[in-house]
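Please check the following for our workbook:

***
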Amino acid sequence: MCGLSGEIRFDGRLPDLAAVERMTDRLAPRGPDGRGLWSQGPAALGHRRLKIIDLTDNGAQPMADPRARLVGVFNGCVYNYRELRHELVSRGHEFYSDSDTEVVLKAYLEWGASCVEHFVGMFAFVIVEQATGRVVLGRDRLGIKPLYLVESPGRLRFASSLPALLTAGGVDTSLDPAALHHYFSWHATVPAPRTVLNGVRKLPPATVRVVEADGTYRDHCYWQPVYTRRPEHAGLTARDWTDAVLGALRTAVRRRMVADVPVGVLLSGGLDSSLIVALLADEGQCDLATFSVGFESEAGEDGDEFHYSDLMARRFGTDHHQLIVPSDRVSQALDGAVQAMSEPMMSHDVVAFHLLSEQVAKEVKVVQSGQGADEVFAGYHWYPQMARVPRHRAADAYAETYFDRPHADLARMLDPSVLPGHDVSGDFVREHMAAPGAETALDADLRLDTHVMMVDDPVKRVDNMTMDWGLEARVPFLDHELVELAAACPPGLKLADGGKGVLKAAGRRILPREVVDRPKGYFPVPAIKHMASPVLQRVREALCAPEARARGLYRQGYVDELLAAPDVHRTKRGANALWQAALLEIWLQTHGIR
């Protein structure tokens, strides 16, 4: 796991090496174990390394293959790199390291841009063909690893984080009205390729971009599961599906143990993380390090779920670590978490993940996390409602159920200069829902949540917060083969038992009943949800700052209304509307955007 950066010129000029160095240095938290730079002709690459696989300098990046005249940088992990290496050796390739990065280079040499179809893992990479000037950028199927882009006449810059690109300079930091519409409608989800800044875009998940020497490019989406029932699954019983899901999850968890350093688990005590722990125990893992975080209660709301994580730790004999965070620590940690955000993220648990990652990184470099199970296996409370909707009404039902507010409400919140003239978020959902390949309204909903919302909300959140402390988070529920299986699974089996029915059935075979049958929990951070005094003070400072007034993003009457009753105004989904507004402004100020 690492951070990558670079610049490619198409106008005959040399790349700005100082800008690439600044980007690379800004990525230092993602890769504290090594730094590398490479430049030749129109291309320059930078890299920060977190040593997980091949701990020697042979795995350093940027990595070159002099014979093939390829140079590349890579972020992530290809879990099947050993199998691919064996296959590539049988095809005549020679290796000089034990790293998965070299496997990526050799795989590209063997299969070209279609090499991504051979990878099982999470990744973002950039490969330069020195002979042709062609540059190839790739991103994993579920968008677990980020890749941000700044395109300008004659130049392309890229980096693993948006703040790294800002340090290079020359970025159009004006606000994108369509992205702001997404942010306020869709719980801070801004789908690729947009970001809230007009000048920064991101490579979509499951996409390979081939850039020619003259700057022209083509994108290819190489993967999209079909959310329909397949003929080969026609005769499967509920027990068969449970067997298949448990087997696929077992494979996914096993794959994510590939490392030359210890791998721990973020254990909330919920079904998803508990399944990971139980399956690792089944695989013979001893003294597995597990980690849980809790917060002080606020406004009568509990801030921890230690009862369940402690139960799991005792049951499977893990080396368990508990972190309790006082409310004033949340406000103190807020600015650090915002600094780590590549894009503004309003979910309450973002600070929790940042604080947890800080502590976990002192013990291990790699953890597995249960992120993604709710989207893939229909675990949220609104999915049963979607299942009752006719297919042709899927888009409207989704907006009614999931959006924070309707388009009309934005007019009284935002200044007209940043307000789109039409419902861009609703249009996005309608277009996505209308695409073929989803049999029912629920299938279309799960496809949207898994491949769009999840990528640019919870998955991005985990990557940003863990990597800010040099901690690699692996997500077995986003193993692409498991996602394909879940997509084909009959909706009724996923919705059963209050949601995630097929997963709960699997859990009952290996987990304590108390864990499987417990009420669904969330990552509670009461100090933010209920605007505890130190958090409210930081919010007031941001919204009343000269930068905020000069920006004029919000109508002043709306801000005054929120500040007059900080814990009253809620979005349709129950989020604190003041926090949503303030978080965006805090993010803009933190990253020097005026």
Notes: Residues 2-221 form a domain with the Glutamine Phosphoribosylpyrophosphate, subunit 1, domain 1 fold (CATH 3.60.20.10). The chain is about 40% helix and 15% strand. The chain has three domains: 2-221, 231-377+455-526, 531-594. The mean pLDDT is 94.
